[in-house]
Amino acid sequence: MSNPTGISADKIPRHIAIIMDGNGRWARERGLPRIEGHRRGSEAVRACAAACIEAGVSHLTLYAFSKENWQRPPDEVKALMNLLDRFLAERTAEIMERNVRLRAIGHLDDLPENTRRRLDTAMEKSAGNTAMTLTLALSYSARAEITDAARTIAREVRDGSLDPDAVTEETITSRLYTAALPDPDLLIRTSGEMRVSNFLLWQISYAEIVVTPKLWPQFGRDDLFAAIREYAGRHRRYGGI
Ligand code: IPE
Ligand code: IPE
Ligand code: MG
Hints:
By secondary structure, the protein is an alpha/beta fold. The chain is built from 7 helices and 6 strands, in the order βααβαβαβααββα.
């Protein structure tokens, strides 16, 4: 069966990571409150996850809320947490139906208790699913992640279970929140911003980057497929020739 992207299966990125940006601007352009942009953004998540499954992407990681996003006005933070709560309440059935495994990375203890519980339940329930792994980055900071890994390694050295001379790249990789995930092949950022905003700094070393001017609530199936096609046309050199 041919892939709906028109790309052969061996050129489909195994792992796509997305910085979902531009909800606020989408709302402002329409004279709507920012939260309406976030609401539309959470609908775009659903469409994007479905399109990834269709294309045969096995890992999708979405930057949903950064550690730095806690600095936003309390009303916006509260609304975002409510949306996450609603997403989990309303979408867990579909997640199960589509055979998606839900995971989360970040400082999950920062989340409101009820949201954290819902998240844990959805993750436990979906742990055995195999069509795609959907990872939500929540209260996530790549520097915090690397710092946490450094602390873990330091403790292991202190306790004598790790020899400093035995520390390799794999030692670090395996102590990140993403230990179980392959590195992203493709990093997409919407809304035209040319920055990484503290997302997966270690893991994106050799990711191909696609920045689209589309704002996140406008990003749909066709945009995802276009990004995959752009990726498939790139020549990944990894420092070679
Ligand atoms: C992305 O949209 C969603 C989150 C960061 C939670 P923004 O809220 O950053 O939208 P802009 O960048 O203000 O348009
Ligand atoms: C990055 O978007 C974080 C998420 C998409 C969750 P931001 O809107 O917070 O990033 P900056 O502030 O433009 O760098
Ligand atoms: Mg933004």
